[in-house]
Amino acid sequence: MKLYVKIFSCITIITFVAMFPLNAYTREYQVFDVVGDSISAGVNPECGIYGWVNMLFGESFGTNAAKTNTIFTLWPGITNWNSAVSGSTASNWATNWEGRLTALKNHHPDLVVVFIGGNDLLDSLGDGVFSPGEQGTYRTNLTCIITNLQNSIPSPDIIVVNYYDLFDGYSTNLVPPYTNYRGMSEAVIVGNAIIREVAASNKCYLVEGTYDSFMHHSYGAELGDTGHLSPDYVRTPLSAFDIHPVTSGHSKLYDLIYSKMNYLKLYAVPEWWLAQYNLTNYYEDVGLDQDNDKAMAWEEYIAGTCPTNPASVFSISGSSGFSPEGFVLRWDAITNRSYSVLWSTNILEGFQILETNCTGNAYTDTLHQAEIQIFYKLKGRIE
């Protein structure tokens, strides 16, 4: 709570109280779907089909118990789809091959995970190089998929996922018959930079931890990686080479993607908004008060203020003075927000609502002109 202005006129005291909302901005979703390839389709060298999406949906397999936390933990009534297709590429999805993207859009999802591009990268390495032209094509195709989805009704929130390096940074040490993959470690870094760029420019959420989380858990141990960690996230040894995660790898993908969904449930502050203030530790930064003005970053997002500037505050002021027509309250309104005006003669007894769902930047109180003391409170929320 912040007290800003007191205006005295005769015996009437009007105090303005600008309030940050008491509850975080959270998202509720109705329909979920996936744009993906065989990784999201659940291909698992250990057991056939059992992947991160299956885990997210609360499915068990053999001795693998169902996860305690699932998509239904976050949104109990959500309808879940998985449109991922083994072998598919970003190019396939961008061109709506076999009507796959149209079919997905006909599910009317409001939350979509886009985890696509691994096969594009593998195809590009046929000559050992992820060329600038191939990079541009992937960027164009990924952008096309996202913008096509965003032009749907409803326009979904999109979570984009980056990729792991099968060789833990040591692909240049590969020997036949794997020499075509010598450029993979560098190509994955370049591809993930494209994913990051496209996600940011299209205001998507990003799961960026895949690369770091898989590092030292893949084939690098046979190529010179002395920092190899257990468990293996792929089928080892290299002679049994497979691009797909095993159960432990899929479980790590589940952890990363579920964590991002939990972020949406708790805060849903767009990462691009935080990033413009150099707040890139999203899960941590969103719950901190960077400028010591008693408002956390998620509150500043709702209020439309700058989270790193203590002079940027959510405030209201009276600009009209007293008149028979009432008293005008004014504030700095922003788009996609609505405001509620409340009043009280004694803040210890609480506030009563004067008006809700104000979308402008002013409200005129014509009802209270005889009170000795009046307190006003303004609340904002995201539509």
Describe this structure as you would to a colleague:
The chain has 383 residues and is of the alpha/beta class. The chain has 2 domains: 87 residues, Immunoglobulin-like, CATH 2.60.40; 236 residues, Rossmann fold, CATH 3.40.50.1110. 28% of the residues lie in helices and 20% in strands. It contains 13 helices and 15 strands. The strands form 4 sheets. A 5-stranded mixed sheet has the order 1-2-15-12-13, with no helix packed on it. A 5-stranded parallel sheet has the order 6-3-7-8-9, sandwiched between helices. Strands 10-11-14 form a 3-stranded antiparallel sheet, with no helix packed on it. Helix 7 runs parallel beside helix 8. It is elongated and about 90 Å long. The chain starts with a strand and ends with a strand.
Furnish the topology, listing elements before pairings.
Layout: E1 2-9, E2 12-18, E3 31-36, H1 38-41, E4 43-44, E5 48-49, H2 52-56, H3 71-74, E6 79-80, H4 90-94, H5 100-105, E7 111-115, H6 118-124, H7 132-150, E8 157-161, H8 184-201, E9 205-207, H9 210-214, H10 247-266, H11 271-275, H12 282-285, H13 297-303, E10 316-318, E11 327-331, E12 337-344, E13 352-358, E14 362-365, E15 373-382
Parallel strand pairs: 2-15, 3-6, 3-7, 7-8, 8-9
Antiparallel strand pairs: 1-2, 4-5, 10-11, 11-14, 12-13, 12-15
Helix pairs in contact: 7-8
